[in-house]
């Protein structure tokens, strides 16, 4: 009996000792800042001179054309880029899951390779490739797909296209690896049975692969959503948010508000809480959708 | 596999289809399309790497006009890169931050992951649940208060400012807790009977057994640290401390960027992760997948 309680006490003490360093650090550098930033989001004033502003910052949000622009851009990236990327990743994974495919290893490695680059490094590569007289325009002109060079980074529409292409290039292989791993856990005899029953390939994909992969598809869409809502590195290197704020994202706007202009910590915190709320709502919605489809 | 083949062989529906020439043609075309799609994808994925190496041998003007063949400016670009910036210093800064950051993250976070799984302390599931919720806190919402904190602590322009917020990684804690579920508890029980203290069990039993988990975690944490950009951009403001990522970004934002020279830097920034990937490909992918297993 005494031994039992001694063991229990040792479980308690050791359990806390092992996790304590991490919890202290997380408390100091995550919980405390996120609470502080909530407090700041209700403060107004320049620099460190805070005064309580109530909902002043939230009212300001609704009247701030640059914020609304950044919000709209972020959503454009989210709604267009994430589905394109996930569908491509799913297609590549399906093709590569075929054991009879020649050169699987090569294709898999090649498509995964972009994931090893840093966000800054690949953005630099894309910036140089999408120059006005650059290699992408050269290729498109030579292949006859376009008659005049496209002003990629100088045009609000095309700049968005470049950002979307760049992110898709970097992350498709990453998502593909998750799908491939999940597909390898699906029992192959299900496919064989369906094939023997004459189920066509697209139906096998739609009625077997997609439902079986639902948890992974959900996981990848949540992490892609969170990532896109925080988009910063790429736009800061490729366009600095331009031309005329057409690729400005929420994170870049927060950075500008805090470190480029006269710092306004209160208002910048309010904008940052918009991301917090969006991440929360979108993750929650995606879980609901996934649950309903079951 | 052989039984499956037999089953397909015996199926009349399949046999009928196989003898149908139009179906064979369709199968051939769709197979061709798959290879075409994959080849395009592979080319698009690899091309920027080729572009990086080719452009490092070209002048800035050649890069901007899309010259996709090898030039003879490689040596000039290297010399310019090494004279414009203190390359060894910058490379060392990046390596130091990535290595020290990785070691500290692995220690703190694997201890916590082990602790969460192995000891049934009170509130552990509630705390762990809270950690998982915190996983989706965007960094953008932390950077302002963190910056003010670091400024108050006089830690701006120090590596402590980079390392402190990063070394307790919820993701890695989660990763280690998941991996620890596969750690045989008999090993711990045996070690306890032998009279080892809990920290000794962690150090001498758990660590060696879990080395492949550590290897995978090292790869992902090292990559994340090496490629880190936004937070170093905010807290490292003097040239002596800048990392290679910060330097190539600032070179590329010049009004007339020296593209050939920048490519030399970009290669230096990419090479370590490229090497790790090719040497440890399987572990690399395992590490990336670790979170969902």
Write up what this structure looks like.
- The complex is a heterodimer of chains A (294) and B (293).
- By secondary structure, chain A is mostly helical.
- Chain A contains 13 helices and two strands; from the N terminus they run H-E-E-H-H-H-H-H-H-H-H-H-H-H-H.
- Chain A has helices at 2-40, 56-63, 65-96, 104-112, 119-129, 135-142, 156-183, 188-196, 201-212, 214-229, 233-238, 250-260, 265-292, and strands at 43-44, 51-52.
- In chain A, helix 3 runs parallel beside helix 7 (156-183).
- Chain A is globular.
- The model of chain A has no long low-confidence stretch (mean pLDDT 87).
- Chain B has two domains: 1-47, no CATH class; 85-292, MetI-like (MetI-like fold, Orthogonal Bundle).
- In chain B, 75% of the residues lie in helices and 0% in strands.
- Chain B has helices at 2-10, 12-19, 21-55, 60-64, 74-84, 87-118, 124-134, 143-152, 159-163, 170-180, 185-193, 198-209, 211-227, 230-235, 244-252, 259-279, 281-289.
- Chains A and B meet through helix 1, helix 3, helix 4, helix 5 and helix 6 of A and helix 1, helix 3, helix 6, helix 7 and helix 8 of B.
Name the descriptors:
heterodimer; A: 294 residues; mainly alpha; MetI-like fold; 2 domains; two-stranded antiparallel ribbon; 13 helices; 2 strands; 74% helix; B: 293 residues; globular
